Amino acid sequence: MRAQSIIILREMFPRWSGIVGAIGNSGQGNSTVLARFANLDGSARWSFLTTRDPDILHRLMRAVAGMGIFHQDENGAFALTRLGTTLRSDADPSMRSFVLYHHEFVYPSMGEIISSSKSATPGFVKVFGMPFYQFAKENDEAAELFNDFINQNTRFVVPALVSAYDFSNCDRVVDVGGGTGALLSSILAEHETIFGTLFDLPSAIQAAKSGAGGPLPRCELVSGDFFSDKIPHGDTLILKSILHNWKDEKALKILENCRRAVEPDARLLLVERLVGPPNELSDAHYLDLNMMIMNMAQERTEEEYSHLLSSAGFRYSRTFSTESPYHILEYAAQ
Ligand SMILES: C[S@@+](CC[C@H](N)C(=O)[O-])C[C@H]1O[C@@H](n2cnc3c(N)ncnc32)[C@H](O)[C@@H]1O
Fold this sequence. Notes:
CATH superfamily of the largest domain: Vaccinia Virus protein VP39
Bound molecules: S-adenosylmethionine
CATH class of the largest domain: Alpha Beta
Number of strands: 12
Strand order of the largest sheet: 8-7-6-9-10-12-11
Order of helices and strands: HEEEHEEHHHHHHEHEHEEHEHHEE
CATH architecture of the largest domain: 3-Layer(aba) Sandwich
């Protein structure tokens, strides 16, 4: 409901460009509302918004103000808060595509959670008729939104990941399903001796080529499928937020393919959230349901990951916690 009200407002304010001010009738009947947008530098402009009922707009904005997205002052004017500015497309990183992706794909699928849990068919498949990654392959806009959502999301945590792990003795880092390369970009920027390979589906590689995830010097960009294509060779493989997208059987296929790409003793770094102890309010528990309705996939405990990795020929070395919800689990190829 909260995200839905933000979405409705975004539809009304497509530019989402600053501070939304006084709302009142334009005098052109009750279908058009005049709103004052003041930018954060204090400059103001007027804009017309079309709505059948200004009262509805006011009630939506009041609710969103209660979430800290707007602040309503004593004159009734609404200002975009610091939190609200993270929804702007030019925020760096931006939460805009996170909200849009959830609105477009996750919430409709979540509505099917009961029937989905009875039939073991992902809610996403019930609503959209096919698995998510297939849908994204056939729908450029969906792929673009998803790639941007992942890119922005990853950029929030990259500083925590690169400071938690010492990459200095890696030679070639292959980010398998590395999206638009946000993590790899940061590793390559910090370590000038490291070469990189970004491996992902064509739409993500295309976004990476346009620079979405940041500069990728000394880096090969390879389009491919981690189930059926050969994974590029390296001494360090990264799998960030990959295995949680898949059930054990498919996750094992990816890992076996990774194992074929490396020599014994090569490193595999698994970057995932970990399911923790019971009776805790945890992001991982929510994300686990999200994975269930999107793909019948799952979040896992450290032990569950290590069991999977060991079945594919990787030996557990150690776990690094980070200043983010993610852990880095280090494995060596046997
Ligand atoms: C949740 S995203 C994680 C992206 C990146 N590792 C990150 O954390 O920013 C999953 C990634 O897996 C990629 N992917 C999905 N199916 C794939 C396949 N069959 N072969 C290669 N990449 C795939 C997606 O395109 C996406 O970039």
